[in-house]
What does this fold into?
Amino acid sequence: MIDDFNNFGDGATVMADICIIGAGAAGIAIAREFLGTRFKILILEGGGFALEENSQQLFESEVVGLPHASIHDGRARVFGGTTTLWGGQALRFDDLDLKARSWVPFSGWPISRAALDPYYVRAERILNLGARIPYLDLCASFGIVPPAFDPNIVTVECSRWSPKPNFGKAYRDDLKNALNVSVLLHANVTSIVTNKSAESVENVEFSTLSGKKGIAKAHSYVICCGGIETARILLASNRIEPNGVGNHYDLVGRYFQEHIHLNYGNLHAKNRPYLQDLFESFFVGGLKYAPLVTLTERAQVEKQLLSIHGIVVFEIPPDSGIAAMKQLFRTMVGRTFSNASEMRQLIGKSLANPDELMRLAYRLHLKKRAATPKQGPILFGAQCEMAPNPASRVMLSEARDHLGMPQVKLDWRLGELERRTLSEFVRCLAKEFERLGLGSFELEQIEFLDDPLAWVEKAHDSAHHMGTARMHENPQFGVVDSECQVHGVSNLYIGSSAVFPTSARSNPTLTILALSVRIADRLKEVAS
It folds into this structure.
């Protein structure tokens, strides 16, 4: 059942066995694990079915560290959460990502990759992902001879893209028709209320933007918000504990991590069609597999670098017929055209080069490869892990939002290990591409990476907010234990990238889902 708290009376109390805060990927995944069971599930979602400006304004924040665009445009207070914004890219963490690495401060998860693997399988089913196909197998099946990269330095793998990434659409009917699941929209959580000893949660307070208030009572509670909002809720819930729930050791909000995105500039191909064969996305069984170039684990260990991968991007010239065709499609789907003249211009540009359009259609529909142009710039970009840093953190601002909640103050920081990883990576790739005759990088364009200050101006965030309620078996070093239960609070769990001790290089959603399914299993054990 899905309802709107605006339809309830002020002061209403709702009861459940399990109360989930947030109807994003984690919250919906956990709820689905209980469909048709004896458990009564309640999901509190602050937004509605579509993005609403007044709800989004609750994310207004103060940025005091490095510029961070996605603190505002990378969060969505809406049913489906940020799955309504992403493209669906999924990739498991590597084994090394979860291990303690001597050169990466505060690294090491209290669980292993092997322990996560069965949950990854279940998470992949939630995302409707197909089989994991190695890059070399894809090349073989498509008749491509892969380059002989040095296996000690470089490897290529493929991420998979979900065909149904928007959970707000994919699983809306499941929750709407469930007899034991209730979703309350426009129910913005404002406080986690514990007992006097702060050892268990007694209830959760929530409110609409119009000021209507409610209380949720349950046996167990799971915060399923992003890495920023999770820290905000915990810090703001300071009625019993002055520093906030789960914050005995001043860890909540610290170790804020992001994936660093960096565009290295132009890649000059020696043989563009071959490069496109190697690095355009593959389509198998209707699913997209996108090649990623990465450093091997051996190279990371020997060079003492962070996890990183790169992608070759075949840019579409903005004045090309392909660009016009894409704009025409978006305009028609979104019904955003202003007049008939605009439509005629787009149609004319789209048909200006019919041979190119036919080539792309042939490649996409018959060859099952991403259709990229045979001319235009080729760029190379990277997504890099960030080393955990306690000074990189989410705090509370003096300013308050419309609900009376303290706004967020974000201090995002980057360091030398990130700079060195980004620099070493592109230089390793440049040597390999030159050796194999694939192409050359304009290395003079990346001299900024030698400057400890200048490079951060080129880097930007990725809307992957992680690490603010990190996982560790010792409460002095982590907010949650290996089961994602908040230390010292018997019935409070966190299903979020906030619990990641380190961030790896992989997009976080698949790992969030794996941990969330694991939490659901734990809740079933606790209640049995």
Summary: The longest strand covers residues 260-269. Residues 321-367 form one domain.
